[in-house]
Write a structure and sequence with these properties.
about 375 residues; 3 domains; eight-stranded mixed sheet; 12 helices; about 35% helix; about 20% strand; binds ligand L263DTV3; stress response; HAD_sf; Trehalose 6-phosphate phosphatase
């Protein structure tokens, strides 16, 4: 898919951002306090925060049939690769030699081995923790409805949230991810950040706006519902295919579909998307994700949450974002561009990433979170 970025000053872009913002029932008060730019909506009584650039519109250009479908299929195949030890004589299925693998490890060392560097960088700063859900807090499983988080992981996340403001940032519908995590003291950004809500249980952060609720894509709700129904109908004959309604976006799952049927499934997605130019496609682990063309992603959600927490343009914050998926790259990139905090990629295999460090799997994420809590406990005067 070709994304055509329209200039920030583009009228359509402004109108779309304005329409999205108009649908807010409740808005982050800390963000609202710092709002300085007019929404440009001619008489609208709301504004857009300076630091949040929502004004780029991506136009999905869906055409080019078979080539596009083949590219998606190839990309899906690589999205959840098995771990195969490569040798210098025989490259792995990812065409990575041992040299390349050790170079990757050098550039993205384990967050466990870099633990002291991370805690040193946090001196005098507030760590804010951002956690992706699937593949980060819960292991990848075949049935998306059964991607449960272990009690030990929940305990670790609860302990982290006691010391650091903590947000779950997921592609899933917010209610669904909450039903897995079950911790009321956290911030939740569902639908790839298009559905943000503050904690329902108070936490210690006095600067934070707990009542935050932000849904920049609400105007797309009817369209997403419509496309969900169409796709369910069109894919029902493909064994193992599954369409998941994530409220402001959709997931089309390939994991349980035989590989020989992937192209047929991807073709159905392409045909439907052709009829909806206001929707675009992104990709996760054996999943195609359909979402509105507004320029809003996990990276924007991270910036929005930092602002809601009172850390807009602050040097007193150290954001740490842990995620395993391509969609998490938007957040890693924001941290890299800001030169602030650390992105940590959860992966057993080398991947192209904007993250600084790596962790192998959810079990290691849990160990990292526990270690952070232990360090904080020991370094906090009683
Ligand atoms: O942003 P995330 O929290 O990582 O959500 C991304 C997608 O996660 C889920 O799908 C993935 O996990 C499933 C359960 O382990 C697995 O079956 C699937 O193959 C993975 O792609 C979720 O079901 C999707 O809706 C999310 O978009």
């Amino acid at each position: 898919m070709t994304n055509q970025n329209v200039l920030v000053s583009d009228v359509k872009g402004v109108a779309m951002a304005v329409a999205a913002m108009k649908n807010q029932s409740l808005f982050s008060s800390s963000v609202a306090n710092s709002m300085i730019e007019s929404g440009g909506g001619g008489g609208c009584n709301f504004t857009i925060p300076r630091s949040i650039k929502l004004l780029k519109v991506e136009t999905a250009e869906v055409g080019g049939g078979a080539a596009r479908v083949n590219a998606w299929v190839d990309s899906l195949r690589a999205s959840s690769p098995p771990r195969v030890k490569s040798t210098t004589t025989a490259p792995s299925p990812l065409n990575q030699t041992e040299d390349e693998e050790s170079s990757w490890n050098l550039h993205h060392p384990s967050a466990m081995s870099m633990f002291e560097q991370i805690t040193n960088a946090s001196k005098g700063k507030q760590i804010v923790m951002f956690l992706d859900y699937d593949g980060t807090l819960s292991p990848i499983v075949e049935d998306p409805d059964r991607a449960f988080m272990s009690d030990e992981m929940r305990k670790a996340v609860r302990a982290v949230a006691r010391y650091f403001p903590t947000a779950i940032v997921s592609g899933r519908c917010r209610d669904k991810v909450y039903s897995f995590v079950k911790l009321a003291e956290l911030y939740y950004a569902g639908s790839h950040g298009m559905d943000i809500k503050g904690p329902s249980k108070s936490n210690k952060n006095k600067n934070a706006n707990q009542a935050v609720l932000f849904q920049p894509a609400s105007e797309f709700l009817p369209m997403i519902d419509e496309v969900c129904k169409i796709l369910m109908e069109k894919t029902k004959s493909i064994s193992g295919a599954r369409v998941e309604n994530n409220k402001f976006c959709l997931s089309v799952h390939f994991r349980c579909v035989e590989e020989k049927s992937w192209a047929a499934l991807a073709e159905q997605v392409r045909l439907v998307l052709n009829e909806y130019p206001k929707l675009k496609l992104t990709q996760g682990r054996k999943v195609l994700e359909i979402r509105p063309t507004i320029k809003w992603d996990k990276g924007k959600a991270l910036e929005f949450l930092l602002e809601s927490l009172g850390y807009a343009n602050s040097s007193e914050v150290l954001p740490v974002y842990i995620g395993d998926d391509r969609t998490d790259e938007d957040a890693f990139k924001v941290l890299r561009d800001r030169g602030q905090g650390f992105g940590i990629l959860v992966s057993k295999v080398p991947k192209e990433t904007n993250a600084s460090y790596s962790l192998q799997e959810p079990a290691e994420v849990k160990d990292f979170l526990r270690r952070l809590v232990k360090w904080k406990r020991l370094s906090t005067p009683q």
